[in-house]
Amino acid sequence: MDPVKRKKMSKKNKIIVYLAGFINSSNMKECSAWRRSLRETYQYRMTGYDIEWSDPTKDNVCHLTYPNAIVHHDYSLLSQSNLIIANLDTFGYERPLTGTIAELAWAYQQRKPIITIISEDKAKEFYSNHPFIRVFSSFIVESIDDIIKDDLIGYFIRK
Fold it and tell me: I need a surface site. Which of 22, 32, 72, 87 has the fewest CB within 10 A?
């Protein structure tokens, strides 16, 4: 294939995926683990996609004490993205997903597709049938494996 044509194709098929979900500075390992797992799984099993991962846990803004900086940072990352993957699990914490719910609303307002992961029983009970979550979400799945199995990211790349 002509290198110029290949370059044009890869630019056309590039997608920026924002990874929204629970962030707790005292439990960053769990908050980051699903994001890392998704990135690594797509890298090894779903080759051929040009995906840039936008991960708010990688930028170390969690340590900031300025709420405006955190909110503006996350809004900026989300706004630059083409697709949102939101994990509504809290890893056993009782704290509500206020930031993640706000991110879902921003994405919906900007007409960005959203893949929502709901795997914890408590989260399923509360969010699975919530009208806002159902309307905001393009797909609702139970695991990263569901995203891979059905190649949901690829669905949006081919559009």
Answer: 72
